[in-house]
Design a protein that fits this description.
The chain has one domain: Muramoyl-pentapeptide Carboxypeptidase, domain 2. The protein has 11 helices and 6 strands. It has helices at 7-21, 29-33, 43-47, 63-70, 145-160, 174-188, 190-196, 230-238, 253-256, 270-278, 283-286; strands spanning 125-126, 143-144, 166-169, 210-214, 244-248, 261-267. The termini are far apart. The structure holds zinc ion. Zinc ion binds at residues 20, 24, 205, 210, 212, 264. Pfam families: VanY. Residues 89-98 have a biased composition (Polar residues).
């Protein structure tokens, strides 16, 4: 499938992907309305022009670091999987700086107020066996093992249902997020940067529990239009069956802190995902920690 996505598409994907890669980034409306070749450069595009020429897009600057981060991930799987079921309606605690104390929990709420430890790299990262828009290895193909296995089943069942899905971006290191965020601040100022990208430590992608997905209907971009596609609607109705939620739903921007991102899937386990789905809520609402 990726073979069919030739250079132009790859470029488009590479550009747009980075939006979410900042965590939740933006995927703002303006991106939907014009082809990437014509639209105004988005923050991420400005931030990493050199990287757009490559399928690797936004990660070149941190390749070596990320390569080292992922080493040994397949062989160490123990404690990261321990807290899969702890979805009693209490968010994991944070210290006075908002750093999560049970950051390995799959139900950890990571947002603008709550962050992962700087040095946290999940120890059980693997590459899910699903189609990506590019073929070669890249750290961002990774997810934590249990999330990856669930994603594989989700993709498989979607395919059975005639739904096309392509994975775009999963794990992202603290350092890479920091590089991207700094670039944004330099390009657009801190205030605007905070609206479109997460500060390092605050991106769900660092948890290894998030994956951005897209497909050919939206030219493999991460844009809000994806939510209106058959695949986007299928995810809304079925993602929870595989333990995933649409983390940044439409109409919940003031609660999640981010604009609508129909492409950003967050693994929280089937039980919690189902509760959130059935109540059309968010992680923040479920745990009663909606920002004021
Ligand atoms: Zn994302």
């Amino acid at each position: 499938m990726t073979k069919r996505i030739l250079a132009p598409s790859i470029l488009v994907v590479a550009i747009v992907l980075s939006a979410c890669q900042w965590s939740g980034g933006d995927g703002s409306e303006k991106k939907e309305e014009t082809p990437s070749s014509e639209r105004e450069a988005t923050p991420e595009e400005k931030e990493q022009p050199k990287e757009e020429s490559s399928e690797e897009n936004d990660t070149n600057s941190n390749d070596s670091e990320e390569d080292s981060e992922k080493q040994g991930n397949d062989s160490i799987e123990q404690d990261d999987q321990s807290s899969m079921e702890d979805s009693a309606a209490q968010p994991s605690a944070t210290n006075e700086n908002g750093v999560l104390q049970e950051h390995k929990s799959v139900t950890a709420v990571i947002n603008k107020q709550r962050q992962l430890p700087k040095d946290y790299v999940p120890s059980d990262l693997v590459v899910p066996d699903v189609p990506f828009y590019f073929e070669e290895f890249h750290p961002k193909k990774q997810m934590r093992k249990e999330a990856a296995r669930h994603l594989e089943t989700l993709f498989s069942d979607a395919e059975q249902a005639g739904i096309e899905l392509v994975a775009a971006s999963g794990y992202r290191s603290f350092d890479r997020q920091q590089t991207i965020y700094k670039g944004n601040v330099e390009n657009m100022g801190e205030e605007e940067a905070n609206q479109v990208s997460a500060q390092p430590g605050h991106s769900e992608h660092q948890s290894g529990l998030a994956m951005d997905v897209t497909n050919g209907e939206v030219s493999f971009q991460l844009i809000q239009e994806f939510g209106k596609t058959e695949a986007g609607m299928w995810l809304v109705n079925h993602a929870h069956e595989y333990g995933f939620i649409i983390r940044y739903p439409e109409g919940k921007e003031s609660i999640t802190g981010y604009s609508y991102e129909p492409w950003h899937l967050r693994f929280v386990g089937e039980e919690l995902a189902t509760e959130i789905h059935n109540s059309t809520s968010t992680l923040e609402e479920y745990f009663g920690i909606v920002p004021e």
